[in-house]
Amino acid sequence: MNPELRGLAGLDRMIHEPGRLLVVALLACVKECDFLYLLNQTQLSKGNLSSHLAKLEEAGYVQLTKGFRGKIPQTLIALTEAGRSAYEQYRKTMSAVLGG
Fold first, then answer.
1. Is the CATH number of domain 3-98 1.10.10.10?
2. In terms of Cα–Cα distance, which of 39, 28, 42, 20 is closest to 78?
3. Which residues sit opposite 74 in a β-bridge?
4. Which of 15, 37, 72, 78 is at a distance of 20 to 30 A from 51, taking alpha carbons?
5. E strand or H helix at 14
6. 33-43, pLDDT tens digit by residue?
């Protein structure tokens, strides 16, 4: 078997799920963002996005900070260093597999 294809076996399944991949890819482009930004950009439902964020937080890939903007509740989300590293490794593996 092609060594690059063997790399697929080592893919981080936490990131590989399409919804979580979308979230992590968006977060990789910004320092942090709020829940509503991710909701609008991903077009996921609130419950689905919340579920993905909970799994990513449990894995240590994202940090959620809950607070207020004036009197309105606000959740800020940012990739952790572990999350950025895992995403970069994921990208390198996929690039090697796809020949890019």
1. yes
2. 28
3. 67
4. 72
5. helix 13-16
6. 999 999 999 99
The domain segmentation of the chain, as residue ranges, is 3-98
Name the token pair of 66: 């809950």
Question: Locate tokens 């077009």: which residue?
Answer: 43
Q: What is the DSSP letter of 17?
A: S
Q: Which segments in the chain show pLDDT lower than 70?
A: 1-5, 7, 100
Instruction: Name the amino acid, one letter, at 4.
Output: E
Q: Which long-range contacts (CB under 8 A, 24 or more apart) does 14-20 make?
A: 14/55, 14/56, 14/59, 14/61, 14/86, 15/61, 15/86, 15/87, 15/90, 16/90, 17/52, 19/44, 19/48, 19/49, 19/52, 20/52, 20/55, 20/56
CA–CA gap between residue 72 and residue 69 (Å, rounded): 5
